[in-house]
Structure prediction request, 366 residues.
Amino acid sequence: MNLFRSFLLILLSLIIASGAVHSQYQVRRVVIDAGHGGRDPGAVGKHSKEKDIVLAIALKTGEYIEKYLPDVEVIYTRKTDVFVELHRRAKIANDAKADLFISIHCNAAKSYAVYGTETFVMGLHKSDANLEVAKLENAAILKEENYADIYDGFDPNQDEDYITLTMFQNAFLEQSTILADEIQRQFRERVKRKDRGVFQAGFLVLYHTTMPGVLVEAGFITNGSDERFLISSDGQVYIASAIYRAVKSYKEEMERKDNKAQQIVRESVKDTVVASLPEVFFRVQFTSSKSPVTFREKKYRDIPDIKEYRQDSWYRYSSGNFKTYDEAVKHQKFLRENKKFKDAFIICFAGNERISVEEARKLTKN
Ligand SMILES: [Zn+2]
Prediction:
């Protein structure tokens, strides 16, 4: 078999694998997560508590989605003033096989002058300010019993722990960012709020979810004007409708793109047998690109078993096929250090289904 033919075969198998791994992504189930609750008030302002504001916004957001997007089911992590652990919030979303996770919060700053909206996606923080927001939100686990056991010794106040946490970067980074950008655009253009931007940081609640997700900071409760807006009924309606509109346009965009991608995959899969895959396996995603990568260059030669999968107009490439997490970590290190793919991260599957690293580690331990 000549080289080019084998290259073609590899490419074909990549496309097939992508079809097997990626079932059609539609937005059918959305989890709305009102931050904090019960014994955890969240950030506290002069006249209000974060937990009350975000519950009101969450319920309104869900109401709009249910009313105007009748094919979407809304699932709440809480509908009343109760305490819900962060890992349980994620479990609610994972068990429901939700397509989208939206966590709603209010921000706090030492300076009363700071105001505006921010939306976060899971990833490595690029500034101390972003790290501080994650610390503030993750501190909710200190109110949970057995948090050290449940979160594998994660300490919300330790900077180093955030590096480890974000080793497993959000595999849904692009999708989550599309939604985050849309939320900020709605806040800026339709609600005239200050748009402070879209950022990455290590949020436990997003880390534990296995679908695209964002954490919205709807304003600073520590700023007088932001707080007045957030506690007003009008303000809550505006914020909720902005999030609803962002979900709507995200859904439209995803389903349009996804259908295109699916067609391509289906055409290539015709007349071909899909190889069966081991129960639980680990791969390392090392790059993604807006246009397909050919991997003809020398430097790719010793990267084993490269697979492509296309989703929402991005081509994602992963390598390796490991039965254990430790092998995957070794391979990740190789890709990061020897191959200079500094953002390479581990992804896991059970059969055709994408699962969280945490879940895969649990399954392979037994
Ligand atoms: Zn919060």
The longest strand covers residues 280-289. The radius of gyration is 21 Å. Residues 95 and 209 are 10 Å apart (CA to CA). The chain has two domains: 29-254, 276-365.
